[in-house]
Write a structure and sequence with these properties.
- With about 140 residues, the chain is α+β, with helices and mostly antiparallel strands.
- Helices cover about 35% and strands about 25% of the residues.
- It has a single domain, classed as Severin, CATH 3.40.20.
- A 5-stranded mixed beta sheet has the order 2-1-3-6-7, sandwiched between helices.
- A hairpin with a 4-residue loop joins strand 1 and strand 2.
- The radius of gyration is 15 Å and the shape is globular.
- This is ADF-H domain-containing protein.
Length: about 140
Amino acid sequence: MSELRVAEISEDTADNLKKFKFRKSQNTYHVVVKIEKEALTIEPEQILEDITLNNLKDSLPYHQPRYILLSYRYEKEDGRVTFPYCLLFSTPMGSATNLKMMYTTSLTNLMHKSGVTKVFELRDLEELSDEWLQENLDRTT
């Protein structure tokens, strides 16, 4: 059995993720992040601005894990608008076990380097919707 290793994040990538966290925008913004298996590094794969969660869902692989950092425009019931910074950890059921384990063991490293504190696991991409995200955000406040 091979040894389970944690993927590394370069200082450049970590700096860019922190800039993403503190950016000023009135739009929803997504950074899709993947692990490069050969180099064992965590790298941004796509940067998507002002798209719906349905469009985001369509851009994600259905049989491979991914991390999705997002700054989400969320209008609360009292009319206030916030932009929570959160991480969606997508681990579709059809993913290879070794990939799931690699992403799971590297999750804490990504959380630490990106400064994200709200993490939601997504097992089925079909569940990804505004309602799903808002329900999860409501549970954290």
